[in-house]
From TrEMBL, chain A:
The keyword Magnesium does not apply. The lineage of its organism: Eukaryota, Fungi, Dikarya, Basidiomycota, Agaricomycotina. Keywords: Coiled coil, Cytoplasm, Nucleus, RNA-binding. GO terms for biological process: deadenylation-dependent decapping of nuclear-transcribed mRNA; P-body assembly. The keyword RNA-binding applies. Belongs to the PAT1 family. Residues 184-231 form a coiled coil. Residues 144-160, 600-610 have a biased composition (Polar residues). GO terms for molecular function: RNA binding. It comes from Pycnoporus cinnabarinus. This is mRNA decay factor PAT1 domain-containing protein. It is found in: Cytoplasm, P-body; Nucleus. Its main location: cytoplasm.
From TrEMBL, chain B:
The lineage of its organism: Eukaryota, Fungi, Dikarya, Basidiomycota, Agaricomycotina. Pfam families: LSM (PF01423). CDD domains: LSm3. It comes from the Eukaryota. This is LSM complex subunit LSM3.
Amino acid sequence: MSFFGFEQQTDLENEKRKFLEGGLSGASQDDVAVFTWGEDSYDGLGDALQEGGDELNDETFGISGPVGKDFDFSGTSLPEHEKPAPSEHAQASQASQQVQQSSQSAQRTHASHLDAVWSNKSPFSVLPRSSGPFRTHDHLGDSASKSSLLAPGTSQSTSAHKPASLSLGADLHQGVHTLEEIEREMLAAAAAQHQQQLQQRQREEEEQLRLQQAQQQLEQLQLQQQLLHQQQSQAQMPAHGLLQSPSRTHAPPRQVPGPQHAAATPPPRMHPHSQSPRFHQQQQQHQIHLLQMQQQQQQRQLLELQEQRERQQQRQLLELQEQLRLEEMERQQQQHRLQQQQMNAGVNELMQSHLIHQRLNSGGLSPAFDSRARRVGRQSPLMTPPIQVDVPFAQNMQYLPQNIQMQQRLLAEMAQAEFLNTLQSAGLPERETRESREVQEILRVEAMRKIMEAERMEEKRKRRLDKIAHMSRYNDLMTQSDKDFITRIQVSQLVTQDPYADDFYAQVYGAILRSRMGLPTSEDRVLKFGSGGGVGLGLGQKVPGRRQSAMQRMEAQVERIVNNARLREKEKSSLNNLQGALGRTAGRSYKAAPRQLLQVDSNNVSTSPAVSHASAAHISKSDAARAQEEGEGAAREAAKIGREALRNTADSTGLVHRDPLTHREALVKLEQLYDLVLDLEQRRRDQPNPEDIEDFEQWTQECSTLIDQLFDQLLVSVPLEISTPHPFISLITPIKGKKLLPRVARLLDNDRMQILLTLLVACFSQLDVVIQAPMLDTLEETREIKDLESQTQAFLGSVVQSILPVIAKAQMRLVTGLFGLLLDRNDIVAIARTRPGIALLTLFLSRAEVILQNVANGSEVDEAPTPDELQSWNMLYNHLFELLRPHLPLLFPSVRLSMLSGVNFTSIPNSDVIDQPVWQFFASLACSANDTQQQVLVGGLRDVVLENVTTATKGMGLESEERRRLRLANVNLFLHALGLDSSQIVI
Amino acid sequence: MDSASNGIQEPFDLIRLSLSERVFVKLRGDRELTGVLHAYDGHMNLILSDVEETIMIVDQVEGVSEGHTTVNIAKRKMEMLFVRGDGVILVSPPSRG
């Protein structure tokens, strides 16, 4: 357990020094100073490194998993943007290295490998060590390959630029260079430029301080520069002592060695494989004990360190002055070298590679900084973001924060300014300068674009990671059994007696969707259980996967619940379970109001109480009771009607009038009708196999009984004169009554529909949409108008649509009969002014016309009307024509509106649309008209036609081509029926 | 007509009659709604369409005796509305006429 002692950190220093001294290869290390610090504090413990007893470290401290910071009590977490990016990696990497060192006795054999890690300048090279289980990465190749391996994952644009930087490296040195070396050079150049920039502004330190205050993002960058100074001075003053990071002035001192931090036990439930906390309980207790010891140690250490730090700070300030001077000298040398490079390599490549390496390095200023930055990171563990340890992606996140982006941008700009300066001072020919400047400009734009793009991407990723990190706070708060418990509760609320009906809309919608997508309309998506209960599954899932397995889990859960419920049901059915049940309510209050556990229903005592507890039972039960009562009611009603009829025939004074249905009565009856219709529709879905004769027989029987009942309750067969409006008309007055009709029409046979149609025609003027239709002749928009409008639409869409097939199949006799009835019983002029009326008249006229055409063509001979029928039809037609003759233009809603409002009818908004049915009516009227009637029609509608054609052709008052075409089409519809065309009209 | 022959057994059966009809809903917080009722459940959650909400804002003027309050009425209209049942005081058909 060597890394429990904090001195171990100095061991690490020592190790590191050894590596660096031993493994320095001149070419790659030329601008890296020899590190000899740490000697003062070196207490020789490293020599006596305790090697044994480490086998269980990983298991104990969960090194392979993410590390929680639950026991990181010392720190106030830093704001997000202040997170020092490279140091975290450094820390993590060191942690891994220390683990390696302590667990591997043959350190020297790994020296070269470790050295490569130490001297690797790209912080990305340490990524895998901190991100994954460390041991798996032990044998990664040299750092160059690592960085090239990892770079694409971190920044996508990097890989694209890689060739450029490689070619640059070859140009410069005429030798084979590793990517690492090239990187280092480029970074050195970048750093040098930056330094020069600062140099030009008089005193560097003042500038830094100012920047420090102004820009938090620059802070990190400066820290690294200061580190560089320090290290340089340390190289000259070997006996300097402890590493004194100026960063300590910013970061609260807490020297926790890496491994300890990394090995901190995850909080109980954060343990990677803790599905059940009990499983690990023992281990945890042990860990907690250890952690408490650690904390005590840490606190002691902290106090000591604080004192140390204060002393060091003062020393440091003095040293800084010296360091700065030294560093400036070196900068000038670098600057000189850089200029040569620029001349050689050309602006283009250099620029690009700069950008790459700035990004690659993610804020690392110069290659030499990285190793130091790592150390800084280790010394200020507090700067570790609180979230990082928990999140698998956190390692990437460190490269994303804004300060890095700012640095990148700053550096890019500085580099550009630098290039401009050097180019000018180099005294290139003017033309070349200009050209290169243009090239530069293009490149600059390009580079900026790429930077922005990369930043956007990074921003996006950052947001995502932030979200994941945010959510991961709650990871593993619940165990699997907790979750199962919740699922059970949720599922138990979904189980119903009739899963299909309870999930009806989703089921039907899903079926429609599937058929539209061309998928086979599979079975109902319902989970059914033996007991008759089930769960509707809603819409089908397109993507299998997590959801699928969740479904299966739920299935198992539900099975269990159902079985349990069945057992309980059994218990319940025994009476002793009801002991003390009086006044108690059933536990489940989600379906409806809490109901009494003991329910005594006076209406049907026979029903067992257990049934009434079943979730959906109370509805079906009440429905059944209602149906029963309805039956009785209907019978009573029928008897009464029969008596009345008898009485009527007896005294032959006519029919006895009854009060019409009140609105509420109509609504009640409608609900009953809806129940019937729903029941019938469900039965039609449950149609048994026709080959199963017995079942099918029974099913047919039941259905026909229900349909009879339905027809009875529609009150269609009640005598016409029983009330005004007729009960059936009252039934279709509410909008849901109108909407019920198409559903009823599907169930009723043709004969019954003809009866229904006859009744409708006979009582047409009693319809609300006909009576109130004049109200629609207004341009106002009140609630009433809107409601009436929707009623009218519903009538046209539902009622007319459901009688349409009846009329379309009707023979001449029926058409004549209905037409006669319509003319006889209604004020045809009033009806013709309504949209439903126009629709009905058009229906009859066009059906008659079709029959006549068929006769003329000789087809459909069996439908051929008798001469009598033809004659009566002609008579009726003439009658209609004569009735309408004085009012022809008034049938147009636009004309009526213009009379009311004083506006010309052509200027009525939307006039063409509202007039269209009337034009259709006139067209069908004109078809059947004889010559005289046609002349009358033309004469009566002359003004309207002319006005419409004029405005349509001249475009007066018509904004759009669309309207003009519609208007002409309307007129032509009528004119074509007369054998004319609007083009013949000369204006 | 007695309630049995109506098939009305529980209060919700009355609300059922108003399905797809215009209803008047009184809510807590001096609010009223009129709209077409599309659905309801046991919590009296409602789904209404074509809704007009009327909000009564009672301003008690300082220094004026009790009862001298000004009532401002704010109205707004909504296409479709989900009303949470816990705010519902009353559901009724709108007064006719």
